[in-house]
Hints:
This protein has 2 domains: about 5-180, SGNH hydrolase (Rossmann fold, 3-Layer(aba) Sandwich), CATH 3.40.50.1110; about 195-270, no CATH class. The protein has 9 helices and 11 strands. Helix 4 (about 65-75) runs parallel beside helix 5. The longest helix has 19 residues, at about 160-180. It has about 280 residues and is of the alpha/beta class. The strands form 2 sheets. The protein has a 6-stranded mixed β-sheet with strand order 1-3-2-4-5-6, sandwiched between helices.
Amino acid sequence: MLAASLGSVAEAGACGDRHHAAAQGDRTPGQRGALVIGDSTTILATPLLGRRGLETDAKGCRQFAEGVAIVAARKRAGTLPHLVVVALGANGSVSAPAARRLLRIVGRNRVLALVTPSNSATSRATMRAIARRHPDRVLLIDWQRHSAGRGVFAGDGLHVTGSGAAVYADFIARRAAPVVKPPSRALRLPSHSTTTKSCGTVRRFGRRLAAHVISGRDRIACARARQLAGRPPLRGIPGWSWWDWTPLPGPWVEVYRRADRKVVVATTTTVARPR
């Protein structure tokens, strides 16, 4: 990793220095596990991410290939969680074949999240391209764009300061939350779809999904509900919050809530949901 010479950058540790934080906090019903794999740019944020419920493993000078090897080993051991967040690519460009290999290892029933580095345009381009190509499987956490102009970096423009680490951890945790933390206590959905407004079906990436209006049935047209169900939610939908509801009991696959909180739309499928 680039030499750490200033303030909090030095505290991040030298090449090969490894930091690990277990996921902490009260697990709510339906919450899924997540793993963050990073390099020295993630070290200061490691305990903060752990406190936000994300297991985190960061090491100075870590290459993308090492991250791929960690994911493969965790999968062989049966300990790879549902969401895999890879915050690498600052120590050498990430190639498209390497990114595709990582996605194959993660598999179709998990989600791969890629955190863009601030110093490598090539790595960012690869990450953005694979997220566009696989919008149902890859969550782009575009740290480079989010951090621009926020004053979160030390003098090298790559490693975060202490306060920048909090911004970094908050951003990753917020982007990960829809995949791993459905708000089951805040949104008490009905246990059956028969009590909802049925709006027909759509096909998305080989799956047939039925759209249902849970609340605000007079505030949204069925055409709009089907449109929501047909869009890849990992990309984000302006004006709507979204959650993966599959780990919870009941028929629901995905849940969408409008920004004014007056409309909730959900999807179901007639085939067995992946676990």
